[in-house]
Amino acid sequence: MKRKIIAVTACATGIAHTFMAAQALKKEAKAKGYLLKVETQGATGIDNALTEKDCQIGEVVIFAVDTKVRDEDRFAGKKFLKVPVAAPIKDAEKVISDALALVDNN
Fold it and tell me: Which ranges carry the PTS EIIB type-2 domain (predicted)?
């Protein structure tokens, strides 16, 4: 069974790092064979918005953010890992591994 991860990326200015973090997470998830959907909360608003169904099927949520997540209440009851937006750019494998460990160790 494929692992299912959802994520939100957002930086303070909502430009480069938001999208760089999303790309890094997508690339790593694809390499590992995981299903991943990333919502970006950038300067132009929310792109690739996570649906209610996405929120239900995601095993864990990664918040790679340097600002407040919009509509965070959608993720109530989910295990989540919050890291700076630069973390997945530097080491997406560690971020995803740490997030899945939250689910696997409980």
Answer: 5-101
Task: Give the active site residue among 6, 7, 8, 11.
Answer: 11
Neighbours of 28 (CB within 10 A): 19
Residues 15-35: pLDDT tens digits? 899 999 999 999 999 999 999
Catalytic residue flag (residue 11): yes
- Those residues whose C-beta lies under 8 Å from the C-beta of residue 101, and which sit 6 or more positions away, are none
Answer yes or no: pTM beyond 0.90: yes
Strands, sheet with 35-42, edge to edge from the N-terminal-most edge strand: 45-47, 35-42, 4-10, 60-65, 80-83
Query: Are the beta carbons of 34 and 5 closer than 8 angstroms?
Result: yes
Classify 91 in phi/psi space as left (phi over 0), alpha (psi -120 to 50) or beta. Answer: beta
